Amino acid sequence: MKKFIALVVFLIVAGMAILFGMRLWSGEDSWVCQSGEWVKHGNPSKAKPAGVCGEIREFNGTISKVDIDGVI
């Protein structure tokens, strides 16, 4: 019975450590692509990305619009 309780406590502590590590090393301060626009999430140390955000459906040498929803 003591081994079972020790195993449960170990699993709980290990799970909490994993969640804490994911929170600590996740990209909390970054730029996120939303609706074709770069949106600041947190306080990123890097500058806003210069590239196009979203899926490009057609490319003819000039980027005029980015079709995110399939409808322009």
Explain this structure.
The chain starts with a helix and ends in a 31-residue tail after the last strand. The model has no long low-confidence stretch (mean pLDDT 81). The chain has a two-stranded antiparallel ribbon. It has one helix and two strands; from the N terminus they run αββ. Helices cover 33% and strands 14% of the residues.
Quick structural overview:
This protein is an alpha+beta fold and 72 residues long.
What strand line-up does the widest sheet have? 1-2
Determine the N-to-C terminus distance: 64 Å
Number of helices: 1
Average pLDDT: 81
| Percentage of residues in strands | 5-15%
Oligomeric category: single chain
Structural class estimated from helices and strands: alpha+beta
Specify the helix fraction band: 25-40%
Strand elements, count:
2
Residue stretches low in confidence (pLDDT < 50, at least 5 long) are none
Could you say how many structural domains there are in total? Answer: 1
Rounded to an integer in angstroms, the radius of gyration calculated over CA atoms is 22 Å
> Biggest sheet: strands, sense, closure?
2 strands, antiparallel
The topology string of helices and strands comes to HEE
Defining key terms:
72 residues, 2 strands, two-stranded antiparallel sheet, alpha+beta
